[in-house]
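Input chain follows. Return structure tokens only.
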Amino acid sequence: MNGITFTILGADQAQSDEGPLIVFYYEAVNTTDDYQEFWYYDFEAGQNGSFLETTWGLVDIPEEFNVNLGMAPGRTLRCASVFKYDPDGGAAGFRISSSDDKDNTVLYYADPRNLSGAPAEPFTFDADPSVPEYVQALPEEVEEVRIENAEFFKDEDGKDTVRVYFTFRNTSEKDQVPFYQNYFYYALQDGILLPMNFIEDPKEEENNTGVEINPGEEILCANCFELRTGSPVSFVVYEDKGPYEKVYVAAKTYEVE
């Protein structure tokens, strides 16, 4: 299904302050040779002839937010989608589909009176020190972008964090442009996207990706990411050419200090 293969693992019930919830668990595998995200998929559920309301953060289910991440080739990620539902109602159906091809779907039906339950093993992010091949093949510097250095520290909440510095150069002939006009980036650890860490006291360089600079000028930028293991961290810069198409520009991998 557009590069990610889904297997629905089962369903469980949870209780929140807003009432009973049904939790659908599923496994996602990146079967391509490129980085993949979940933005191009829809996760929907229905019961008694109506769509169910999606919820976020009402109960403590770590897998629930994994659809906000992305995966390098060959990586697997367990996810969960949570909905308000009627435990005394009919069967609840869950559908994963491609946003641009509703016929390309994975379906699952759960009987509220006979739910299979949550996966037996608690979810964890497994450490994987290998660096994806497509990242290894990229240069650290091109004419427009140069990845500089990284620094490791603990934020104000004690979370392990990495700050990556990179330089953007305006190579256009006459236009003032910011980094974000043409380029984007992400960081990987264990082949899984790292969440950004918006620290309370950011450095000036962290605000520079939106600053317009003149032709021929350079500006130093930075961003912070929250670490989850001690595996190497890869920082990747790319151009977004539309759905399912990224043109990679540069990358650099750092050992965690």
